Amino acid sequence: MLPLTGYADRLSVRPGETINFHVANDTGAKVDARIVRVISADPNPAGGGIRLEPVATVVKACVPAQSQFSRQGSYGVVLPTVPLQNLKSFTLLATIQLTLQAKKARKLFSLEGPLGGLILEVAAEGALQCSIEPGTKGLQRPRSTVHLEAPLGERQWHRVWASFDAGSQILLVGAHLLKDGVVSGVVDSASVRAATSAIFGEENVCIGENFNGRIERPMVFDRALSPDEISAAFAAPIADVPKLPGLVAAWDFSRDMHT
Hints:
By secondary structure, this protein is mostly beta strands. It is 5% helix and 38% strand. The protein contains 2 helices and 14 strands; from the N terminus they run E-E-E-E-H-E-E-E-E-E-E-E-E-E-H-E. A hairpin with a 2-residue loop joins strand 11 (170-179) and strand 12 (182-193). The protein is elongated and about 75 Å long.
């Protein structure tokens, strides 16, 4: 990333008109501005070099330039809500397509805070995994992770899920392969007895490690669904999703999509 960069809001300007320059400054130093005529903008000293001539005009206003970040990739941020923060047991569902396997884990769903949380992600080897995080406040608790043995194939749609039962402390993850929209078999499923409960704390938004692929219709339930309930939730028409028992949140990414 360039420590100091900017752009103009228009390509040309006539006398009497206004042009604005938007600047991002990550240097921490004060930024000044002046108008110059560019004779040569070649940074190569063996070439023309950078040659500028002052122009007798004054910059009307120069506000302090701040650091500006542009997050790569698409993502969604859900502000903290009581139903999500009060989860003890849960089930996460989504239909995904992995388009490019990364060299490190990529998150599908993350709900994290100082008191702990959970992460559903595709691991570096391409297998689905879910972790319950211990958090940074309170008691020191180990991280619990369960992952599938078989990797998810690229350019293939899968129904994936993770569930946690606070009573039995069982953390489970699984995936179904889809072909032409029909379940063609179980890719894998696995479970583990977690070393700690899932505790969701304060908002902690950290964007990064985006999943390379497509995510459709994620859903969150406030209990560990049975296999039959998971199948029914995936098969439910969009209009019937809000009626599913235990549903806390669901997103329909096809809404207002015209292409």
